[in-house]
């Protein structure tokens, strides 16, 4: 059950070959640890997936106290947490707390990282941090699918990890500037939109004044601009009044995109309000 447009945990309750995902809602402020406990008690899942470091799509970061609670829940219930850390290096106001696994060494936690977000989207390599036993099992499973990732990309990723502090600060400064520009553009072109400045990540989570996200994204795509609708982050087509607005484009490109989007939005809003007026009449 998802009763809010964003949710941090997609819990897979696995019985045999079946897998039934159950969402745990993300409240307006903080994280719903009570909901996590209740869902685990009701479904007895084998695994829970969550993104505490600049959650996609909200950009929210889990605080230290909540990490301790979540790690203790994992240990107590023996639920394996698969923690997505792909955005962990993309912080703008303050770095995130230590990894979730650091808060309870007895908790079954698997951490996932990615070079694609931190360094370059074309570098499609990631890594897993877990217990030695878990890593050994995963390696054995991986060997049944392929012979490994390309060596050149592995060497490039290794070098980037060793030298990350030489260029990640510049990347964060550039993304911070792009985030702030996108915020100004949305306030200028779309004053009806509601959003919170993301603490990290690569996008804004925007609330529209009506359920127009899918229509708006469809018309924007016809003009050559792709937008992520809230329906991608909900169940059964929910959250059609939300958009994920990325801020990774160069400044000139972003400004041009907003100039294209504004008349599309104005036309859509006019038609929507006209439809409501006809219903009233």
| Strand runs, count | 10
Rg estimate, integer Å: 21 Å
Count of helical regions: 8
Question: Termini separation (Å)?
Answer: 37 Å
Mean pLDDT: 87
Stretches where pLDDT is under 50 for at least 5 consecutive residues are 1-18, 277-281
Largest sheet: 6 strands, mixed
The chain-level structural class is alpha+beta
The sequence of SSEs as H and E is EEHEHEEHEHHHEEHEEH
> Fraction of residues in helices?
40-55%
Description:
The structure is a single chain. With 281 residues, the protein is an alpha+beta fold. It is built from eight helices and ten strands. Strand 3 (47-50), helix 2 (64-77) and strand 4 (80-84) form a beta-alpha-beta unit. The longest helix has 30 residues, at 251-280. It is globular.
């Amino acid at each position: 059950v998802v009763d809010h447009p964003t949710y941090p945990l997609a819990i897979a309750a696995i019985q045999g070959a079946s897998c039934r995902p159950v969402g745990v809602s993300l409240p307006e402020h903080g994280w719903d640890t009570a909901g996590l406990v209740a869902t685990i008690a009701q479904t007895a899942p084998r695994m829970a997936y969550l993104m505490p470091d600049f959650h996609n799509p909200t950009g929210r970061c889990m605080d230290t106290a909540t990490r301790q609670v979540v790690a203790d829940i994992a240990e107590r219930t023996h639920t394996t947490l698969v923690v997505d850390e792909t955005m962990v290096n993309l912080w703008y106001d303050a770095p995130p707390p230590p990894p979730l696994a650091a808060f309870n060494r007895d908790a079954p936690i698997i951490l996932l990282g990615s070079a694609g977000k931190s360094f370059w989207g074309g570098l499609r390599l990631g890594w897993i941090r877990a217990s030695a036993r878990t890593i050994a099992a995963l390696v054995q499973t991986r060997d049944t699918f392929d012979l490994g990732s390309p060596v050149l990309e592995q060497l490039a990723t290794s070098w980037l990890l060793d030298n990350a502090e030489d260029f990640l600060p510049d990347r964060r400064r550039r993304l911070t500037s792009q985030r702030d520009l996108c915020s100004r553009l949305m306030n200028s072109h779309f004053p009806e939109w509601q959003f919170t400045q993301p603490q990290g990540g690569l996008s804004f989570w925007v609330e529209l004044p009506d359920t127009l996200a899918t229509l708006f994204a469809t018309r924007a795509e016809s003009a050559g601009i792709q937008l992520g609708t809230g329906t991608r982050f909900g169940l059964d087509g929910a959250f059609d009044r939300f958009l994920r607005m990325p801020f990774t484009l160069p400044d000139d490109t972003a400004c041009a995109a907003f100039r294209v989007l504004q008349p599309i939005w104005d036309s859509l809003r006019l038609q929507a309000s006209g439809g409501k007026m006809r219903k009233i009449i």
